[in-house]
Design goal:
Keywords: Coiled coil, DNA-binding
Shape: elongated
Structural class: mainly alpha
Protein name: MerR family transcriptional regulator
Number of strands: 0
Domain HTH merR-type: 1-69
Coiled coil: 72-99
């Protein structure tokens, strides 16, 4: 194979190949009488591995170390590894297309980049203009993007999303937008919000938690003082029940 052919096969540029030669990552192949480099299958396999490792975020020095550890392996073993890697990429592409299908099927104006499971959950929620309900939806979307959700959890939350009584709780939280942080309505509303969540939900939440440093403070900062106090109490009660 000539350099352009192996570049197309391995999914890299000819410029990248020449750079790999320059830094010693890819050995120079033998040249034909006409002066052109003659690349073989093993060169293509090596280039494909370099591309995959750099896509994972490894530096060229780190890639060199990995390749050195693999020196002497049978070509068949390397090819099997690459085949498994292609299968993984194929599965990821299939999952992305499945998510795109859900987004494309959504009504205009309701498209959000969420997992199909969360999209199904949000579809069960009644239409509302509640700012608190909108915030909760945004927080679910964020946790979903962080991989903290899951089909089991969303299935358990389904009845809550469709419950008019839960929407009424959101609206009561909206009513605290201009209230003082010691408003007498705060304790009762916080308790009702906690009581509305079934115990099964806590069992479905990942045991390692989903709240990174600073997340709680950033979330509370989105609310007015009285609303933030309700949310703070709810979060603390959730953490306590989760530990139990």
């Amino acid at each position: 194979m000539r350099i352009g052919e192996i570049a197309a096969l391995a999914g890299v540029t000819t410029r990248a190949i020449r750079h790999y030669h320059h830094v010693g990552l890819l050995p120079e192949p033998a040249r034909r009488p006409n002066g052109y480099r003659a690349y073989g299958v093993r060169d293509a396999v090596l280039l494909a591995r370099v591309r995959r490792l750099t896509e994972l975020g490894l530096s060229l020095d780190e890639v060199r170390d990995v390749l050195a550890d693999d020196a002497g392996r049978d070509l068949a073993d390397v090819l099997e590894e690459l085949d498994a890697d292609l299968a993984r990429q194929e599965a990821e592409i299939h999952e992305r297309r499945r998510r795109l299908a859900v987004l494309l099927a959504a009504p205009p104006g309701e498209v959000e980049p969420v997992s199909p499971a969360l999209a199904a959950l949000l579809a069960e929620a009644p239409a509302t203009t509640s700012p608190s309900a909108a915030k909760d939806r945004e927080h679910l979307t964020l946790l979903d993007a962080a991989g903290a959700g899951g089909g089991e959890l969303y299935e358990l939350l389904g009845p809550l999303a469709a419950d008019p009584a839960v929407l009424a709780l959101y609206e009561r939280l909206d009513d605290l937008a201009d209230a003082a942080p010691d408003d007498p309505r705060i304790p009762g509303l916080a308790a009702e919000l906690v009581a509305a969540v079934p115990d099964e939900v806590f069992a479905a939440v990942p045991s390692d938690g989903v709240v990174v440093a600073g997340f709680k403070e950033a979330l509370l900062a989105e609310y007015a003082p009285a609303q933030a106090e309700v949310v703070r109490r709810v979060m603390e009660a959730f953490m306590e029940k989760g530990r139990g």
